[in-house]
Design brief:
Blueprint (H helix, E strand, L loop, with lengths): L1 H26 L6 H9 L33 H11 L5 H13 L13 H36 L4 H15 L2 H12 L23 H39 L2 H8 L4 H19 L1 H11 L2 H6 L5 H11 L2 H29 L5 H4 L1
Helix pairs in contact: 1-14, 5-8, 5-11, 5-14, 6-8, 7-8, 8-10, 10-14, 11-14, 13-14
């Protein structure tokens, strides 16, 4: 087992490098680099994408700055100082190697447009994303797995039919549309004002008792978490049902029934560990997508300032330290979650031996 874990950890290194190389290369061809953003603002806030020639906004040229919008009205020396300040006076390869060396030491640099380090900026936004991602994933699994098992056991019954209809409706409704519906109904949109519309806590949060703080926290996150849970809940329930149905029809289940074993014993001692493998395999993708990538619209609707909005704003502003720093951290976390998932396989079904396969 230790040899397998070591191999997987070593594989993380080239995978991370590959992810960073691809994304760094793509930014060299994206129009409207960070210096162009600054020049456009200084020249009156014009569109930085107008008049770009050659599409080389990510890779900056030297000297006079003739490739930049508005550079005709700014001294060439000023452009050179901006390039030097942001490090764009160096060749792309040198910038990339320097960036990766800093990332190995978990030094993600400082945001171009905010007087704060990338690490501190991510930590500032992390509570929102932890709240949305963690509770969404836990609730989705806590509801979907028992419901999926019950639907598999009662396949074809009225319970299965009605719940399938509800699940299909839930899957068909986009999370952001469901969020708008909840706001209209329960957050003072047009009907009742039961839940707050913004923030994770109230303004008087520090003055509340411990029980009051817990209640205030869940009161604020109820609607956004519910909005994000609906789609993942529907998918996971159907996946669990189909997985258990496939296992229930196998020969070993019929043999266990012939030996007189009870239904619950067969279901949870034999079927469960086999059927849950496919469910667990989807955990890393679900966790990472919900935790980091799937909350932009929900954060915007409920006025929450999390990693989703941070990543979007950084990409629009070409704030490359924030873009690459968060990309590196999240990719590393996703790879580690994948290793943990493999270990979970072996915990559920000891017959799986990845080391022997290697």
């Amino acid at each position: 087992m230790s040899a397998y874990i070591l191999r997987r950890l070593l594989l993380v290194i080239p995978t991370l490098i590959g992810i960073m190389v691809v994304n760094f290369t793509l930014t060299q061809f994206v129009p409207g680099g960070p210096i162009e953003q600054i020049i456009a603002q200084m020249e009156g806030g014009g569109d930085v994408f107008e008049g770009i020639s050659g599409g080389g906004g990510g890779e900056l040229v030297d000297g006079g700055g003739s490739d930049y919008i508005g550079s005709r009205g700014l001294p060439p020396g000023f452009i050179e100082e901006l390039e030097k300040e942001f490090g764009f006076d160096k060749p792309p390869l040198e910038r990339f190697l320097s960036m990766m060396w800093n990332y190995v030491r978990f030094d993600f640099g400082q945001s171009y447009f905010r007087s704060i380090s990338v690490f501190d900026l991510v930590m500032e936004k992390m509570p929102v994303s932890i709240t949305l991602g963690l509770w969404t994933t836990l609730i989705a699994y806590a509801i979907s797995i028992p419901l999926g098992i019950k639907k598999a056991v009662r396949d074809g019954s009225k319970f299965d039919t009605w719940t399938s209809g509800a699940i299909i409706v839930g899957y068909a409704i986009p999370g952001f549309l469901f969020a708008i519906l909840l706001i209209v109904l329960f957050a003072g949109g047009s009907y009742w004002r039961i839940f707050p519309l913004r923030g994770l806590t109230s303004t008087n949060f520090d003055d509340l008792s411990m029980l009051g703080k817990i209640g205030d926290y869940f009161w604020h996150i109820a609607l956004p978490v519910l909005s994000m849970t609906i789609a993942s809940f529907a998918t996971l329930t159907l996946l669990t049902k189909n997985s258990f149905l496939d296992e229930i029809k196998k020969q070993y289940v019929l043999t266990a029934k012939a030996k007189g074993l009870g239904e619950r014993t067969i279901l949870y001692r034999h079927v469960f560990r086999n059927a849950m493998l496919i469910v667990i395999s989807g955990f890393p993708a679900l966790f990472i997508s919900v935790f980091f990538g799937g909350s932009l619209i929900i954060e915007t609707l409920f006025s929450l300032d999390g990693l989703g909005r941070l990543g979007y704003e950084a990409a629009v502003a070409r704030d490359y330290p924030v873009v690459f720093g968060t990309l590196f951290a999240f990719s590393l976390m996703g790879l580690v979650v994948g290793i943990i998932t493999d270990l979970t396989y072996m915990f559920i079904d000891p017959r799986i031996d990845f080391e022997a396969r290697g």
